[in-house]
UniProtKB/TrEMBL annotation:
It comes from Kribbella albertanoniae. This is GHMP kinase. It holds the Pfam family GHMP_kinases_N. Residues 80-158 form the GHMP kinase N-terminal domain. One of its GO terms (biological process) is GDP-L-fucose salvage. PANTHER family: L-FUCOSE KINASE (PTHR32463:SF0). Keywords: ATP-binding, Kinase, Nucleotide-binding, Transferase. The lineage of its organism: Bacteria, Bacillati, Actinomycetota, Actinomycetes, Propionibacteriales. Residues 230-308 form the GHMP kinase C-terminal domain. The keyword Kinase applies. InterPro entries: GHMP_Kinase-Related, GHMP_kinase_C_dom, GHMP_kinase_C_sf, GHMP_kinase_N_dom, HddA/FKP, Heptose_7-P_kinase, Ribosomal_Su5_D2-typ_SF. Belongs to the GHMP kinase family.
Length: 340
């Protein structure tokens, strides 16, 4: 008998400080990020098969490899190198949100796969270990020009204040925002899709290659993160919305690729309809827009953006976790799962 393991790992909304978690900035100046893990997830299933190689299944596509060495460079290959897993396994994964949406999906997949592989081998790991090793996979082994906030948000869950550096240290402080604030937030926060996707790495590489002005913008984003945390703890959603607007204006200074005329038009329509402010989530370009608006203007903002899909969400108090684990007999790869 062998074990089949399913892990579930939350996506995240980055409220303030995104960009200041990039190593080339945070290790010199220190970075601050305020983020929320949400109840949109990446699920990963690892199960044994009697085929000696490795089978990967995602969105109906099946790929079969003779060994881990035969895998193409990428997250799966590097996670197997870090966490183990051996031969004769099938890895299936799915997400409730498309890739490239600005919700940290790639890092959630990395954290979730590491978690599932460890459980499959009979081990376990702390949230801090999962986050650190996910950063190692994506940043050190794959040389992705990304920051570290997504991995930590996915591993820990909840609402968190993260401090990155100076140097290599990472500190986490859970943020207790209270039941009253959560009730108010449900009436005043909207997340809407711009209908596109992008690769964060390309935008963040462009940010790193930018001029000296990028440091001024990142310094400003770090200070806005401090003020945003204070506003959140005070339960002042209007202030949070206005600070998000300031953050968005600073973020646009990092690279011309952060925004475009389509995204700018969506934001203008939201502000005209009564939103306090907001920002495009993730590195920018496309994805989901986070908006804060007074409760009495929420209907108007929704109407103004009616052509765009809204993402319902709540806070996910848990980070990456095992949601199913059972003993199974190794059998042939389950091709039926790929065709569902």
């Amino acid at each position: 008998m062998s074990t089949e393991v399913t892990s579930r790992t939350p996506l995240r909304i980055s409220l303030f400080g995104g960009g200041t978690d990039l190593d080339w900035y945070s290790r010199s100046f220190g970075g601050h990020v305020l983020s929320i893990a949400i109840d949109q997830y990446v699920d990963v299933v690892v199960r044994p098969t009697d085929y000696d190689g490795i089978t990967l299944i995602n969105r109906g596509a099946v790929q079969v490899y003779a060994s881990a060495d035969a895998l193409p460079a990428g997250i799966v290959r590097e996670c197997l190198a870090v966490a183990g897993g051996g031969r004769g396994i099938e890895i299936t994964w799915s997400s409730s949100v498309r890739a490239g949406a600005g919700l940290g999906g790639s890092s959630s997949f990395t954290v979730g796969l590491l978690n599932a592989l460890l459980r499959y081998r009979g081990g376990s790991a702390s949230a801090a270990w999962l986050a650190d090793r996910a950063c190692h996979v994506e940043i050190d082994r794959l040389s992705e020009p990304i920051g570290r906030q997504d991995q930590y948000a996915a591993a820990f869950g909840g609402v968190n204040w993260f401090r990155f550096g100076p140097g290599v240290e990472v500190a986490r402080e859970p943020v207790d925002i209270g039941a009253d604030f959560l009730a108010a937030a449900r009436e005043q926060i909207l997340v809407v899709s711009t209908g596109g996707s992008r690769r964060a790495g390309a935008i963040l590489a462009d940010v790193r290659a930018g001029g000296a002005g990028r440091f001024e913008a990142l310094h400003a984003l770090k200070q806005l993160a401090v003020r945003g945390r204070e506003a959140l703890l005070a339960g002042d959603l209007k202030a949070v919305g206005c600070l998000l607007d300031e953050s968005w204006q600073q973020k646009k200074q990092l690279s011309e690729r952060v925004h475009n005329s389509f995204v700018d038009q969506i934001y203008r329509e939201a502000l005209t309809a009564g939103a306090y402010g907001g920002k495009l989530l993730g590195a920018g370009g496309h994805g989901y827009f986070l908006l804060i608006c007074p409760a009495q203007r929420q209907a108007a903002v929704r109407a103004a953006l009616a052509e765009f899909d809204e993402l319902p969400f709540a806070i996910s108090a848990s980070g990456s976790r095992t949601v199913a684990q059972r003993n199974v007999m190794p059998g042939p790869p389950d091709w039926r799962r790929a065709s569902r």
